[in-house]
């Protein structure tokens, strides 16, 4: 019998009522009295020298309040980078400046040159058209390999090359890895591209800056996954506004997928400009603007080698990756191809020798940063593709080859720094084999072939590091932030509760799932609990939501704060019941004295806390409100096995997904319905990457896929009905809920399953295709079939 | 968008008069024009909305047995009301864009715009239909004059399209993955006096007739009749979603499938 409340139940998402009835309060719904509108004039060339910006005519246009250019930001800080990577030679990465508005040069299509603030958006746009620009177009660095070559155009002249860093991991393992590969019985090599993607949240970015002269306070309303991070970065590093004079509010946010983690120029601009003109300033991105100003994702070019011994045991992995940083370092960009990628290269397998080399490259393109999975999809894709290729070369079953090499004993110290606390990869694979009906595949393939189609089956495993992250560890790795989370549990006099969390919900369902945890601990009804998030003036200092961390880290903070509440409430109850505190039990929202029928209700205790007439005031403060900060001792390691079955039309190259099964181990589950929804969404994004999505630039750095006319997002009919399961749970050993995180798994685990299935289909038709780069679009598949 | 005036005349005559103003543009369903305006790529002084013209809306049979569709008729209406007489045309209309597009976009607007990837031009050309305007009748073979180019004069609007009803017909669209416009679409229509094959989405010259296929299919209306026939890749559109060679290949595949599906 499934539970109907508390942990493990699936109540419907309470926030959906407002989202689905149009009552959500998004940033663009916020309008402040006296508000002005901002329009950014953006570069239409990828690389150019700014000779002159003449705003004199534009300033005289109707409605114009003020026009800003890079000159206005001389002496103002640039956008900071939140992670410093140290290279193979012990040197810090190259960290060029990132001005709020371009200074001296423009470095990508979409780079903001000037900002017009006017009484209306149309007036701002009109004036922007009257700005006279003299920009001398320069040759652009677009292709990463070419950008590292001699004589390549320099994105940043002051750093002398386009190399941000050359990172080796683990550098001390390099010799052993080279030796193991040299002596291996078999080496499989694969070169592949993990293409650039655009996150495309449903809600484009918006920022509203407001300034109160009365108390010298600035407020920024913004589409962010982490308002405190923005307050810290923008206040301390860009604008020099002390934290107590700066409030950042991220209200309802319509999807983030990573791209709303980062601190963007537009946020700093509206906050800065509102102070300068003493009026609120609003900016709402158009979709076209989002394509050229939201940080992009992925964009790796990789060579991976997998070495096996004569018994098909994995003995070594060596990878070389070029990772695109784009024109500037976005907030967490340097960490993605390094610490979020290299540390996952062991996958689910006990490979003793691993060496990862990553060269991060500046190009004249939009900055690249974390996108759902961030580094882990790139690691998983190359590893699971090369394993499939090895199985084919060796003539062994790809599932058997994986099983043979699985890590089976935990905790497991990988050769790439991290320690897996727990897992059972055979269990998820067993479950997957059952869900995917492998036995029935031959008959399904026959049926497809009878229709003139090819059918392929692909499988892969994945592991990810979530619950980001132990602060002391990431500090050693270059993070310029702590990655704890916070929660305040405020119990009201009548027993209702507001939980103030540093996590941020932008679609994840925190407002439903978090109360389930607190309700379970207290034995009260979930409807008595509300979640408050997204406002630095309300919540304790928190690090926000990304890296599948909200429940594992934010939820743990909430548990710790609730434990403190229970401890204090028991003291109050023991006073009311005139019993020893040690004998007080809390069950079903009632405090009772063990072994007696004496009890006092939750509401009586909470009332006593705030109306302390009969209360041990000499020993205990009144009130019932507790805060906890939780810093995890390790990452969590969700893992699983995915299977995809495709049908391929050999006449057109079109691939359709016929079946998809996902067996995940997320540890304990709070709300199974929400978890399934997260997996469904992740799978759709992963399938989108595998078959549809591609952010393309031409050789001059012009963005070719700059709208939905050319950027193919997955739609409902592109994806199948999924079969998902999360019953193979090995609870996390180091957080109080035993949870691991589920937000990114689908996007990490699905691309290799799809491509493995496409290759299987092609091979079954006699096409000797070893690899196909994503997206496996019809023309690409057709071209691969025809050499 | 820039500012402009909007007028919504009730008769074709009033619409034509309104269109005579400087920098006036006709507005059909707005599926191309409105996004163009939003991007500030067009700056008309006045938009003449055709959506109030009752006389150019609807679907009916003419006395000589043709299917007549008013120029202002929305795709959703064609999908519904042409289904009995010309199912292949109705199916084409029912698969343009998404429901929002089909409830705004009109046949006249699509034909006047003549996007090289639009569906309707292939049906009109393959059917040998007649495009009727406020001042004349234009044969399909004379109407389409290349990408975004037609025989229409300034200020001339499509009031009706007359389709001879074929014995058999079908439209096969291979969708561009992002926009779902036709990457290559082929309309095949079999009449007593021969077969016509029109291809959209593929050529830099816009919709065109594949005359070799027409000849082969006129002698034998069967997918086998197309064996060995290909269109050259030269002059085919090449972009992110398909090379010219790929599109040329798809012309053959989609034609074969249209013949097989024709009913």
TrEMBL record, chain A:
The question of whether Oxidoreductase is a record keyword is answered with yes
Question: Which keywords, in A-to-Z order, does the entry hold?
Answer: Molybdenum, Oxidoreductase
Domain (Aldehyde oxidase/xanthine dehydrogenase a/b hammerhead) ranges: 21-139
Question: The organism sits in which domain of life?
Answer: Bacteria
One GO molecular-function entry: oxidoreductase activity
Query: Any keyword NAD?
Result: no
Q: Which InterPro entries match?
A: Ald_Oxase/Xan_DH_a/b (IPR000674), Ald_Oxase/Xan_DH_a/b_sf (IPR036856), Ald_Oxase/xanthine_DH-like (IPR016208), AldOxase/xan_DH_MoCoBD1 (IPR008274), AldOxase/xan_DH_MoCoBD2 (IPR046867), AldOxase/xan_DH_Mopterin-bd_sf (IPR037165)
The protein here is known as Xanthine dehydrogenase family protein molybdopterin-binding subunit
Provenance organism = Thetidibacter halocola
Per the UniProt record, the lineage of the source organism begins with: Bacteria, Pseudomonadati, Pseudomonadota, Alphaproteobacteria, Rhodobacterales
From TrEMBL, chain B:
Q: Which UniProt keywords apply?
A: FAD, Flavoprotein, Oxidoreductase
Q: Which residues form the FAD-binding PCMH-type domain?
A: 1-168
One Pfam family cited in the UniProt record for this chain:
FAD_binding_5
What Gene3D superfamilies does the annotation carry? 3.30.465.10, CO dehydrogenase flavoprotein, C-terminal domain, Uridine Diphospho-n-acetylenolpyruvylglucosamine Reductase, domain 2
- The highest taxon in the source lineage is Bacteria
Has UniProt tagged this entry with the keyword Repressor?
Answer: no
State the Gene Ontology terms under molecular function.
FAD binding; oxidoreductase activity
What is the name listed in the Swiss-Prot or TrEMBL entry for this protein? FAD binding domain-containing protein
UniProt organism field:
Thetidibacter halocola
């Amino acid at each position: 019998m499934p539970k109907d409340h508390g942990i493990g139940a699936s109540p419907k998402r309470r926030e959906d009522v407002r989202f689905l009835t149009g009552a959500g309060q998004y940033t663009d719904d916020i309008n402040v009295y006296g508000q002005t509108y901002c329009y950014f004039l953006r570069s239409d060339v990828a690389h150019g020298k700014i000779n002159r910006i003449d705003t004199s005519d534009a300033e005289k246009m109707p409605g114009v309040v003020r026009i800003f250019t890079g000159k206005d930001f001389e002496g103002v800080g640039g956008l900071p980078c939140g992670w410093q990577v140290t290279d193979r030679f012990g040197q810090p990465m190259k960290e060029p400046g990132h001005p709020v508005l371009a200074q001296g040069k423009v470095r990508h299509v979409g780079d903001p040159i000037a900002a017009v603030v006017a009484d209306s958006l149309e007036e701002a746009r009109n004036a922007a058209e009257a700005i006279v620009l003299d920009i001398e177009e320069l040759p652009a660095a677009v292709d990463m390999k070419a950008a590292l070559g001699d004589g390549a155009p320099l994105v940043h002249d002051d750093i002398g090359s386009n190399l941000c860093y050359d990172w080796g991991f683990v550098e001390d393992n390099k010799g052993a890895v080279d030796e193991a590969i040299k002596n291996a019985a078999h080496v499989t090599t694969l070169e592949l591209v993990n293409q650039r993607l655009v996150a495309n949240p449903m809600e484009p970015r918006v920022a509203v800056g407001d300034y109160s002269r009365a108390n010298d306070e600035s407020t920024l309303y913004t589409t962010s996954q982490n308002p405190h991070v923005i307050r810290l970065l923008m206040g301390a590093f860009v604008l020099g506004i002390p934290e107590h004079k700066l409030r950042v509010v991220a209200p309802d946010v319509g999807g983030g997928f990573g791209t709303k983690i980062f601190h963007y120029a537009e946020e700093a601009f509206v906050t800065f400009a509102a102070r300068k003109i003493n009026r609120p300033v609003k900016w709402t991105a158009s979709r076209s603007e989002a394509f050229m100003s939201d940080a992009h994702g992925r964009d790796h070019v990789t060579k991976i080698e997998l070495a096996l011994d004569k018994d098909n045991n994995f003995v070594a992995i060596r990878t070389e990756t070029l990772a695109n940083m784009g024109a500037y370092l976005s907030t967490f960009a340097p960490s993605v191809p390094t610490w979020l990628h290299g540390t996952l290269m062991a996958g689910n397998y006990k490979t003793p020798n691993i060496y990862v080399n990553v060269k991060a490259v500046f190009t004249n393109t939009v900055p690249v940063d974390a996108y759902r999975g961030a580094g882990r999809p790139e690691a998983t894709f190359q590893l699971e593709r090369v394993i499939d290729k090895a199985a084919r070369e060796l003539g062994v079953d790809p599932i058997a080859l994986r099983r043979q090499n699985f890590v089976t004993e935990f905790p497991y110290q990988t050769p790439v720094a991290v320690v897996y606390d727990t897992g059972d990869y055979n269990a998820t694979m067993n479950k997957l084999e059952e869900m995917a009906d492998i036995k029935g595949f031959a008959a399904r393939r026959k049926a497809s072939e009878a229709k003139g189609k090819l059918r392929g089956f692909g499988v892969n495993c994945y592991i990810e590091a979530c619950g980001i992250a132990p602060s002391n560890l990431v500090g050693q790795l270059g993070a310029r932030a702590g990655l704890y989370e916070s929660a305040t549990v405020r119990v009201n006099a009548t027993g209702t509760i507001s939980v103030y969390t540093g996590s941020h919900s932008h679609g994840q369902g925190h407002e439903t799932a978090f109360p389930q945890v607190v309700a379970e601990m207290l034995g009260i009804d979930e409807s008595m609990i509300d979640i408050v998030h997204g406002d630095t003036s309300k919540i304790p200092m928190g690090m926000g939501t990304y890296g599948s961390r909200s429940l594992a880290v934010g939820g743990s903070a909430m548990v710790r704060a609730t434990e403190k509440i229970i401890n204090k409430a028991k003291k109050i109850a023991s006073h009311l019941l005139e019993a020893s505190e040690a004998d007080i039990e809390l069950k079903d929202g009632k405090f009772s004295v063990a072994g007696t029928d004496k009890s006092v209700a939750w509401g009586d205790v909470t009332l006593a806390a705030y109306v302390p007439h009969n209360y041990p005031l000499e020993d205990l403060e009144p009130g019932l409100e507790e805060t906890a900060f939780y810093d995890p001792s390790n990452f969590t390691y969700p893992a699983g096995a995915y299977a995809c079955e495709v049908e391929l039309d050999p006449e057109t190259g079109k691939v359709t997904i016929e079946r998809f099964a996902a067996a995940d181990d997320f540890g304990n589950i709070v709300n199974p319905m929400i978890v399934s929804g997260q997996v469904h969404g992740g799978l759709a994004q992963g399938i989108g990457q595998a078959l549809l999505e591609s952010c393309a630039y031409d050789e001059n750095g012009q963005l070719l896929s700059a709208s939905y006319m050319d950027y193919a997002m997955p739609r409902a009919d592109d994806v199948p009905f999924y079969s998902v399961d999360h019953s193979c749970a090995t609870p996390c050993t180091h957080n109080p809920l035993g949870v691991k995180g589920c937000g990114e798994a689908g996007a990490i685990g699905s691309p290799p399953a799809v491509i493995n299935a496409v290759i299987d289909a092609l091979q079954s038709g006699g096409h000797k295709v070893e690899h196909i780069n994503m997206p496996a679009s019809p023309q690409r598949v057709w071209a691969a079939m025809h050499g | 968008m820039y500012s402009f005036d909007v007028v919504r005349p009730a008769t074709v005559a009033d619409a034509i008069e309104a269109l005579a103003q400087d920098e006036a543009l006709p507005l059909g369903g707005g599926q191309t024009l409105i996004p163009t305006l939003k991007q500030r790529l067009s700056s008309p002084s006045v938009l003449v909305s055709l959506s109030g013209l009752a006389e150019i809306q609807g679907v009916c049979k003419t006395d000589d047995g043709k299917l007549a569709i008013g120029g202002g008729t929305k795709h959703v209406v064609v999908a519904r009301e042409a289904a009995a007489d010309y199912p292949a045309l109705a199916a084409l209309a029912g698969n343009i864009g998404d429901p929002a597009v089909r409830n705004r976009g009109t046949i006249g607007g699509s034909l006047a715009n003549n996007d090289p990837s639009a569906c309707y031009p292939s049906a009109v050309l393959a059917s040998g239909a007649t495009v009727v305007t406020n001042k004349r009748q234009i044969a399909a073979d004379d109407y389409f004059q290349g990408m975004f180019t037609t025989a229409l004069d300034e200020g001339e609007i499509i009031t009706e399209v007359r389709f001879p009803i074929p014995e058999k017909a079908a439209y096969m669209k291979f969708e561009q993955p992002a926009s779902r416009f036709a990457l290559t679409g082929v309309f095949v229509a079999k009449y007593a006096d021969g077969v016509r094959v029109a291809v959209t989405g593929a050529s830099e010259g816009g919709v065109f007739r594949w005359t070799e296929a027409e000849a082969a299919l006129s002698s034998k209306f069967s997918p086998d009749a197309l064996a060995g026939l290909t269109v050259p890749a030269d002059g085919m559109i090449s972009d992110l979603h398909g090379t010219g060679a790929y599109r040329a290949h798809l012309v053959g595949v989609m034609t074969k499938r249209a013949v097989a599906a024709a009913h």
